Amino acid sequence: MTKRSCSPRLTSRPEWKALQAHYRVMKRRTLRDLFAEDPGRGRRLVVDSPGLYLDYSKNLVTDETMQLLFRLAEACGVIESAGRMMAGDRINETENRAVLHTALRNRSNRPVMVDGQDVMPAVREVLDRMGAFARRIRTGEWKGHTGRRIRNVINIGIGGSDLGPAMACQALQGYADPALSVRFVSNVDGTHFLEQTRGLDPAETLFIVASKTFTTQETMTNAETARRWLLQALRDETAVARHFVAVSTNTDAVRKFGIDPANRFGFWDWVGGRYSLCSAIGLPVMVAIGPERFGEMLDGFHAMDRHFLETPVQRNLPVILGLLGVWYNNFFKAETTAVLPYSQALARFAAHLQQLDMESNGKSVDRAGRHVGWQTGPVVWGEPGTNGQHAFYQLIHQGSKMIPADFIGFCRLPETVGDHHDKLMANFLAQTEALAFGKPRTAVVAEGVKRALVPHKVFDGNHPTNTLLADCLDPATLGRLVALYEHKVFVQGVIWNVFSFDQWGVELGKVLAGRILEEIRDPARSLDAHDGSTAALLERYRAGK
Ligand code: F6P
Prior knowledge:
alpha/beta
């Protein structure tokens, strides 16, 4: 691993110290003052990029703050690092891998080299095979074992092999073929498999087993259960080949499962699970919306990749969002960040971002293996508006914690009814206004509110938000949005000096679960190796199951 100890520690950088001094001033400022002094900021602190408008004026920043943050990004070499990633350098050092999700959606003719080889022909070949397969399912040319048309497609995968495609299928349901039902099974809890297959006819059902490694316990358990479910009905082993396809890098394991290697869609070790939506992992999305629309989604991803690499930091969307996140996380000590899409179709967007962000930057050693002396990745959470308004917004408005939030809205949706969309967007706009400016005591008193109630009805405001207003929730815009957050996470990983593309923190639990499963299966096994709490719980489970 490259020694990086010569690079200055983040908190001793002069750019960091300048931000610390500036924070001492800014912590006393309010959004109300900032707008009163500078009403033009609502049109200046914005980025108007094709199809996507970011207003970041409702943040606790001034032009000076932004300049100091941009200097930090430059000092940390954010854009140079992005260039190295997109050029195929092995920046995932702990796994000795390149990180090239951007090659999956490289819509230019530019080659992308890994170890002296252009990966683009292989990327295009898999996309073409996915396209041909998706067309065969969509037209009914691909028949099940009994000659029936496939009407249900069930993706079996977990983490990055589930969250991205599940989120995208839901987001783009307005573009999906209504004759096909595309579903997802991820949890090893058998309830998930049962609820997703209830009432379905196995003869009309196709499973996509999506697993980079093809060893993940949850996915392989669900895949075996799916095979039994199919064979119980069709009673012929050869049916497996007509009802199962795989998305994996592990050719041997796919063959052993009984899946025809011709129906394996591959990808590469330089695609991280949570960054794999544009790889063959996106197959269920392509089946749902068709190869052309899938291509439009890739165009959107690619447009954001170019924007990130080529736009000066001052107008660079991922850089700005990343820096604002650092500002609140490291200076204001905000622990969490909310992502609030005003779109029911984006109901799983926050879940996808949770893996993307928290698995990437939930680290506490730096790239030289030393404990970081600063906060890294935040807790990411969120729900679609307006539902969140009737649940947890109370805490954002009047609670004791700072929760920076991203509001995501659309001028148009592919489908809606009556005046629902205007009502939705009225709420969208109202919330960021209320969060920023609140309702001062004087206004509450002027309304004649009883004295005792006044403190309860005051809104202090001063809650920072970003507003992302997109033209339409279409495949290209979804691609831009997801890529925006991928690169935001990248920016923060560079600044915090952590490795964003490994996930060692998920390993320990997997190993312990394997051992405990043996102990559950064999009650004679001693539990002495466990701590007192785990041993007692295990005994109770053994007795109670
Ligand atoms: O949770 C850990 C993880 O390795 C994720 O990074 C990954 O997306 C998920 O498991 C699924 O892995 P696989 O695609 O190999 O089944």
